[in-house]
Amino acid sequence: MAARSILEPLEICFSDLQLMSSHSPQLSPAELSRIESLTAAVMQALGPSGPGLLVITGVPRAPGLRRDLLPLARKIALLGRKDRARVLKDHSLGSDVPLKNPNRNVSSCALQLTYSQNLNSQLSSTTLKSAVENHYSGEGYPVNDCFDNLDVEFKNLGTTFKELGLCMMELGIQLAEVCDRAIGYTELKQSIIDGSAKGRLIHYHSAIDNIILKETNTRKKEFKRKTQQAENGIFPSNRCTMQRYPKERISKSISNLWQQWHYDYGIFTVLTSPLFMVSCQAEDCSHISCCQQSSSPDAHAYLQLFDIKKNIIYFVRSPPESFIVQVGEAADILTRGKLCSTLHSVSRPTDIQNLSRETFVVFLQPAWDKVLSSSEFPCLDETSNQDAPELMQEILEKIPPLSIRYKKEMTFAEFSRETTKQYYSSSGTHK
Ligand SMILES: O=C(O)CCC(=O)C(=O)O
Ligand SMILES: [Fe+2]
Q1: Does ipTM exceed 0.95?
Q2: Which of 265, 314, 327, 346 to mutate to test the pocket of ligand 1 (most atoms within 8 A of CB)?
Q3: Residue 322 lies in domain
Q4: Dist. CA 95–CA 262, nearest whole Å
Q5: What's the start-to-end Cα distance of the chain, in Å?
Q6: pLDDT in tens, 21-48
């Protein structure tokens, strides 16, 4: 059994990231030395002796975009099939999980992001403000979701998705510049710019979400009647009875992981700190609208890292409006082990039936035809199957180490195909 502990990752503020990634000859010697030690701390955090991630705080405009976008993840996930297809189509979003499966524990929508996209001119502060007002009323009660009004509800979905995605991409690019400079010979930044980025808005389902999902299509009429009541001013607290979902309706086979153990295989993964939501537990309420934001029940993000060498699982703690940047395996290869990816998963509090988790992730990947050449693997093979601790052995059976999946001179496309094949025994796309 691995020990468990909390990890408070290295935090750097956006203004320092900018200083580290730009040539600023005007810095005083004291400031220069502060920036140099911060750069050393970044390289330590992302390198073989660190956790393979860090946190960025103080990113301008980002908290508002995050607050607008993350609650939409749940709303999209719980729409009926037809409505969801329409919303996704209207905003040119796709999905990379089988949304037809009502027992799924993750829903996501995804979009390819291009660095040249620049939406700053398209989004005024007025449009952003109106998006906030659509989600919650002044008293803190959620406003009812009338899905006849999908256009209003999801009006800014596409633009907010892209704007936050591009902002997160920029964070990854600036961090890549810091690493390139510190290492001296790498081309992480250029590989990201020449590569592709995928934005993924993720809703991790609560157990009750899955009941709602099954009922959404069959109960549409009843649901409309209830949202009509809500429009007439009957708010959740006096609309719901205290009759809870009968225990037998809640799935007993819930996994204690919202996402399985894996390594990311791009260059960097940039994530928002997750948002937690608790829905009403009454069986007869208008469930979708009856939901409030909540802090994490255990004061951590439920993102967990496995430190194989120490046999410790760390729960990552990150301030609510910060971003996490994680190293992916392509960065291990491109930097010949100066940066190191860490095995991670998303754990799930199985005892809380009405808790969901929302997050937005941007995967920064090299171009598909980029040749990943490295013959040195300082990060790899520290643990062989035989001497690995028990949990690690179990994981390694499903997730072979990088040295097995990567062959010298592979292109990124070949590497990701091999990884997906070995993770899932198929050639479908990972995530
Ligand atoms: O949701 C999270 O915090 C982590 C997600 C993740 O690891 C992934 O999508 O690769
Ligand atoms: Fe991941």
Answers
A1: yes
A2: 346
A3: 3-366
A4: 20
A5: 28
A6: 997 778 899 999 999 999 999 999 999 9
